[in-house]
Write a structure and sequence with these properties.
It contains 1 helix and 9 strands. The protein is mainly beta. It has one domain: Beta Barrel (OB fold (Dihydrolipoamide Acetyltransferase, E2P)). The strands form 2 sheets. It has a 5-stranded mixed beta barrel. Bound molecules: zinc ion (ZN). Zinc ion is lined by residues 40, 42, 44, 53, 55-56, 58.
Length: 141
């Protein structure tokens, strides 16, 4: 799976992810349009990336590439920006996306609430916001 990566470095005013430690492989993959999660030898799958498995404590669980599709578990429409850089984006939608691969992640949903519902199918796309990171954003399929 390689989703599109839209270059938004010029206009993005939101927070910029800073790849460090366990998150470096995750952010490097986003630049290529790939969404990765960690799958430990014990079978646990997790996202966001962490230095240890949340189920068994093993260090540096390996990364696997997600299919980049899932469903909307829940969402909220934000009228008050959570960050100053989101001020001119309100209202915007943040959702908990349940990937078909298993892990769940919070991400922007690039659509109006009238265009989807809880349970709707979504696919990942990426907005490149720095030289080092592209944030995953989901759109209804
Ligand atoms: Zn584990």
């Amino acid at each position: 799976m390689n989703a599109s990566v839209e270059d938004r470095r010029q206009e993005w005013e939101g927070p910029i992810p800073v790849p460090t430690g366990a998150t470096e492989p995750f952010w490097a993959a986003t630049l290529e349009g790939a969404l990765c999660y960690q799958e430990c030898d014990c079978g646990n799958r997790q996202l966001y990336p962490r230095a240890v498995c949340t189920a068994c404590g093993a260090e540096d669980p390996p990364f696997e590439e997600s299919e980049g599709v899932g469903t909307i578990y829940t969402y909220t429409r934000c009228h008050v920006p959570g960050e100053p850089g989101f001020g001119d984006r309100t209202p915007y939608v943040v959702g908990a996306i349940e990937l078909t691969d298993g892990p769940r992640l919070l991400a922007l949903i690039d659509a109006k609430p009238s265009e989807f519902a809880v349970g709707s199918s979504v696919a990942v796309t990426f907005w490149r916001v720095s030289d080092d990171a592209a944030i995953p954003v989901f759109v209804p399929e």
